[in-house]
Amino acid sequence: MINNQRKKEIIEYLSDTDYRTLKDIADKFAISMNTARRDINELAEENLVKKFYGGVSLARKKDSTFQSRIASHIEEKQRIAKYAAALVNDNDLLYIDSGSTTSLLTDYLHRDFHLTIVTNNIYVITKVIEVVNWDLIVVGSRLKHSSCSLINVYDWDYLNSLNVNKAFLATTGLTIQGGATNPDNAETIIKTSMMKRSQENFLLTDSSKFDRTSLRTFANIEDFDKIITSGSVPKHFVEYCAADSTQLIIA
C-alpha cells in the first residue's frame, strides 16, 4: 500500500501543474517506475488522480471558471496587460490568445486606435465589439468553457493566410527545458499557427506559471521576442533569458 506521507506529497506535486509523467514522479520521490505506477494506480482507485498514457494529472471535480482564473494573481496580470498594451501602435494587426492574462489586454488598449484583432477568446470578443475602431476576426468554432476559448478551426487555409504584427500568447506553464505548454491539443495548434503568422511574439504570464508544465509544448523560450511577467521570477529564468535573445520584462 502506498505510504500515506508520499500520497500527500504526490497530490501536492500534481497540484502545481496539469500533467506529470511517471518518470517525473519516480525521479521526484526516488522510487522505481513500478512503484510509481503502483502508487498512481492506488490514487486513481480513490479518484484522486486521473491517468493518461504514460502520465497522470490531479483529478479535479470541476474546472475553475474563467472569471476565477482571472481573479487569481489579478494585480500581477493587470500590470502585465498594461505593459503589453503600451507595445501596441495605431493600425496594428494583433492576435490576442485565450488566457486569463492576455484577455485583460483589451482593457488597456487605446480606444481611439484603429486595430484589427484576431482572437479565439469569448471574453476578448465581448470587449472588442464595444469599440467601433477595432475590427474583429474570430478563429475557432467550438467553445471550451473552462478557458472561454473557441477551438476546432475548420478553415485552416484561412487561418494560415492571416498576417499580424504582434501576437500576445498565454501559457499554462513555462519551463526552460519544456518551453511554453498547454494541455489542450486544439488550443496548442492555434497558438503555434498564429505565432508563425506574426512578426513579433510576446508571452504574457504571471509568476505562478514558472517551473510548471503541461502536456504539450507550443513554443520554446527563444521563440518569443519578449516574455512579460510580474512578481518574483526564479533566478535560473533570469539567467537563461539574459544569455538568450529573449527579453524578460518584469512589469
Automatic annotation (TrEMBL):
Keyword terms: DNA-binding, Transcription, Transcription regulation
Molecular-function GO term, any one: DNA-binding transcription factor activity
Pfam families in the cross-refs: DeoRC (PF00455), HTH_DeoR (PF08220)
Family matches, as SUPFAM superfamilies: NagB/RpiA/CoA transferase-like (SSF100950), Winged helix' DNA-binding domain (SSF46785)
The UniProt record lists the keyword DNA-binding: yes
The organism's place on the tree of life at top rank: Bacteria
Boundaries of every HTH deoR-type domain copy: 3-58
UniProt cross-references to PROSITE patterns, sorted A to Z: HTH_DEOR_1 (PS00894), HTH_DEOR_2 (PS51000)
Record's protein name: HTH deoR-type domain-containing protein
